[in-house]
Protein SEC13
Amino acid sequence: MAGVSNFESGHTDMVHDAQLDYYGRRLATCSSDRTVKVFDIVGDHHTHLADLRGHEGPVWQVCWGHPKYGSILASCSFDHRVIIWKEGQGNQWQQAYITPGNLHTASVNSICWAPYELGLILACASSDGSVSLLEYKADGTWETTKLPGGHSVGCTAVSWAPAHAPGSLVTSKQQPAGPVKRLVTSGCDNLVKVWTHSDLGWRDGDSLPGHSDWVRDVAWAPSLGLPKNTIASAGQDGQVFVYGELPSGGWDKRLVHDFKVPVWRVSWSTTGSILAVSDGSNAVTLWKESMDGVWQQITQ
């Protein structure tokens, strides 16, 4: 968010998430005050555009859809629901879809739009342990599906894999035909789980152990500059791991750092080469893998 100075959001309670859209021109924020706010960002200036009301509890996350599908924003809340908002004419926002009351029976903690090549699909992770998918169909309706299984205690985060295999844009090697549907989830069962979609539907393939407490966040790296699938995880145990998929199957695990305090969020740069970590001491640090495979902090 270079060029954007601190500003008063207007929320009346704690702000839990802030996300720029694809072009970096709009900012969405969400709060325990049950509202989502949308701002226009130009240089150092921001203009408040809209307050989106509809949730009945704290709103944990917001996520912008790809502009191919118009101006679409999703939000998830402690009230067990996900709302998908669509902008109409004159900055008028409407609820395009709200999940049925029986889809999740506890807080929805994390949402993530699939790569646009896969269609308009939102993955949702809930404290009830399950992961749901909301998919926009050609007839204008939304279809909901639940992934089988899930996490035994609660699901904390979800992240999609890139639609194309790592290196497929720069290599002539034989690659899987068409886009790939995979995602990763984290849970209060101390596990990271990788899910793959095939002709038989969704299945959870690899469980990636390593954490000794709740896994708070998980992020699949963009494949733009990477030779292999890479996942980062952040734990209540203070540890951040990076998992790399092996050509023979399975994943190798490397400890990025033990922060000695709970780690809340991990996020990748657009090339997948730099990992940002937000920890319980209110610090945000940047990490990069050295040539010999050791993760080192980038001093700013």
In short: The mean pLDDT is 89. The two ends are 15 Å apart (CA to CA).
